[in-house]
Design a protein that fits this description.
With 66 residues, this protein is α+β, with helices and mostly antiparallel strands. The protein has one domain (5-64). Helices cover 15% and strands 36% of the residues. A three-stranded antiparallel sheet has the order 1-3-2, covered by helices on one side. The longest helix is centred in the middle third of the chain and has 10 residues, at 26-35. The model has no long low-confidence stretch (mean pLDDT 84).
Length: 66
């Protein structure tokens, strides 16, 4: 039987100002979660601003449940 997993969704800001730019250091967020046993699965960035630009991104992590 396959193991059970739990998931964590962490929202980070990815847009700032007219030209965009990274507002949150997503690499640090991923490294911090990895140290705590979470595996980075995917980043989901829906278009939420003008011209289809994303301003938020959900980082998705998983780990086996105990």
């Amino acid at each position: 039987m396959a193991g059970k997993y739990e998931y964590r969704f962490v929202r980070v800001k990815v847009g700032g100002g007219f030209f965009g730019g990274l507002s949150t250091d997503y690499q640090q967020v991923i490294e911090q979660h990895a140290r705590n046993g979470w595996r980075f699965v995917q980043a989901y960035a829906p278009a939420t601003a003008g011209y289809g630009r994303s301003v938020l991104c959900d980082l998705i992590f998983e780990r086996e449940s105990e």
